[in-house]
Amino acid sequence: MRKHALRGTALFYLVAVLLGPLAMVFYRAFERGVQPLWRSLTDPNTIHAFELTLEITAVAVPINTVFGVVCALAIVRRRFPGAGIVNAIVDLPLALSPVVVGLMLFLLYGRTGWFGSFFQEHGIQILFATPAMVIATIFVSLPFVAREVVPTLRELGDEQEQAAHTLGASGWQAFWRVTLPSIRWAVVYGVVLTTARCLGEYGAVAVVSGHIEGKTETATLRVQDYYENFNQSGSYGIAIVLAAISVIVLLAMTLLRPKESA
Amino acid sequence: MSIEVRNISKRFGSFHALDDVSLDVDGGSLTALLGPSGSGKSTLLRIIAGLEHPDVGEIRLAGEDATVVAPQKRGVGFVFQHYAAFKHMTVRDNVAFGLKIRKQPKDAIAARVDELLQLVQLQGFGHRYPAQLSGGQRQRMALARALAPEPKVLLLDEPFGALDARVRAELRVWLRRLHDETHTTTVFVTHDQEEAMEVADSVVVMNDGHVEQVAGPRELYDAPANEFVMTFVGEAIRFDGRLVRPHDLEITLDAEPGSREAQVERIVHLGFEARCELTLDDGSRVVVQMTRGRAAELELDPGQIVLVRRPGVGVGRELTNVAG
Predict the structure, then answer these.
(1) Alpha-carbon span A133 to A105, nearest angstrom
(2) pLDDT in the model for residue B320
């Protein structure tokens, strides 16, 4: 009896909080038929927004993957003073509101900011352009790979790496042949979460992008744009494309992951 | 390849793992580092392998200073207690690892791996993953992996510690035979004195970060350097203020010079030998070991009052530093 109650509660919660709203989005998107939805999605500015989102993601994810693995190795393997601080700093983007992140970048790269004047002198546009949006996205999606890899590395221990060393492997060889294959699923999972976060990033990017239609507008900003202009089916349309990408990515993950135990 | 350990000290925080340890291991020998946990034996082995660095002191391999040489350049094979198997690789790939790192030609690697799998009796298991092997098989795989690059020194850290008694006994015999065939300088760590005595030519008894004694198994038992070695290697009991072996005592039914009264608590028959646990008149407990023939002769029963004495007082096992 209690088991059923527990299961029921969990299910109700998921439906109410997650699936219900998602279903509503789908319903609203198709409410006025496929035609207006299609028109909104094939609008050049919308296509550009998707392209920009993918571009930013394509830059941010590899950078954060490398950085996340390096960070995790530093936190778990190296006994150095300040490892605890690094560990805490990696989590900072999770605790900080993306809007605050955006404002920080604004202050750094703005006309009077620390780095802003330098780049301005060299004619490089950071703010209200792709670079700032990439930096903002990297910042908010930074912890995911490290967070996934750290516990796996801890559990793995360092005996296999030591064995590799005694068999003649250099540090680099041990990493490629032993450590990385052992943590690959944690890395993949981290990459998936990072990708999802990058695709969905709104707050920090909104602050630094400047919202220039067809130029600095990402998919999520486009959703807001359409919504504010009473193009409901358009905004819901983009929303379901974003949601569909997330679902596909998570499904791919779930299908791939069980192989790990074999 | 000989190993020389010169005045090595190592601390972990405030814990002295090794305190000014020196040791010589002859090339081609089979040596056991024996001691209780925390005695520093594993740390010493890891320092020889280059997996730990001494705070002070020097390691010389084949006469050359190797103190700061990286583990991958020392030419040592290392076997871990918990196998350290590469879980994502098949048995073949595990064994081939050291050879692939050395970029040996493919067919040479395949031939060597076949040879080693045969040696460790894992011929049919090449394509399995470590998770599909038993503990004993995993450790044999780890041994084959360590032997593949033909190390000049083979170091084993409690290699059989995680295995059950029967497999452990098999692998002991196997390790001894392997050494007799290859004559690779071998050092293994164990806390099991029986294992050390059975397998090794030379046993290094360690305690509290010090070397207590280095000797052959027989000398270690017959002429322990001090009370620690006497009690750690083989069984020792206190009788009349002296440490003696259980087979040094004798049970009699008639009074003899120096005999004391004791009550039989329990009799244990262990194949050829029998052990009798007794409580002496002063309340202390002793164990007496005898042949089964002698036990049958005495017809001992629990609760019976008998006499215990130590015949042949003054044989070579007297210890100068034994206090009462």
Answers:
(1) 10
(2) 47
The sign of the torsion formed by the CA atoms of B150, B155, B156, B157 equals negative
Phi, psi of B133 (to 5 degrees): -110, 155
Residue of A nearest to B147 (CA): A167
A56: Cα within 13 Å, side-chain hemisphere? 35
Angstrom distance (rounded) from CA B82 to CA A103:
51
Within 147-166 of A, beta carbons closer than 8 Å to B belong to: 159-160, 162-166
Give the model's pLDDT for residue B324.
36
Of B82, B84, B98, the CB nearest to A168: B98
Q: Which of A166, A173, A177 sits opposite B78 (nearest CB)?
A: A166
B314, pLDDT greater than 60: no
**Predicted local distance difference test score (pLDDT) of residue B65:** 94
Please judge whether A163 and B51 are an interchain contact, meaning their C-beta atoms are less than 8 angstroms apart.
Answer: no
Q: Does B323 score more than 50 pLDDT?
A: no
Query: Which of B248, B245, B251 minimizes the C-alpha distance to B265?
Result: B251
Determine whether the interchain pair A166/B85 forms a contact, defined as Cβ–Cβ distance below 8 Å: no
- For B82, which of A159, A181, A182 is closest by C-beta distance? A159
Choose, out of B78, B116, B139, B155, the residue to mutate when testing the contact with A (most A CBs < 10 Å): B78
Instruction: Name the minimum distance, in Å, from the CA of B85 to any CA of chain A.
Output: 7
B90 pLDDT exceeds 90? yes
Per-residue confidence band for B242, with pLDDT thresholds at 50, 70 and 90: confident
SS (H, E, C) A56-113: HHHHHHHHHHHHHHHHHHHHHHCCCCCHHHHHHHHHHHHHCCHHHHHHHHHHHHCCCC
Is-contact B34 B233, C-beta < 8 A? yes
* B250 vs B294: CA distance, rounded Å: 10
pLDDT tens per residue, range A206-251: 999 988 888 999 999 999 999 898 888 889 889 989 988 888 888 8
Question: What pLDDT score was predicted for residue A88?
Answer: 86
pTM over 0.80: yes
Q: Does B78 touch chain A (CB under 8 A)?
A: yes
Rg of the Cα trace of chain A? 22
* Of the listed ranges A232-241, B116-125, B224-233, the one predicted with least confidence: A232-241
Q: For residue B168, what are the CA distances in angstroms to A66, A256, B34, B80, B153? A: 44, 39, 16, 15, 22
CB-based contact A178 B86, cutoff 8 Å: yes
Q: Choose the mutation target among B42, B51, B79, B93 for the interface with A, i.e. most A CBs under 10 Å.
A: B51
Q: Please state, in angstroms and rounded to a whole number, the distance separating the CA atoms of residues B93 and A198.
A: 38
Average pLDDT over residues A79-90: 82
* Res A27: pLDDT: 86
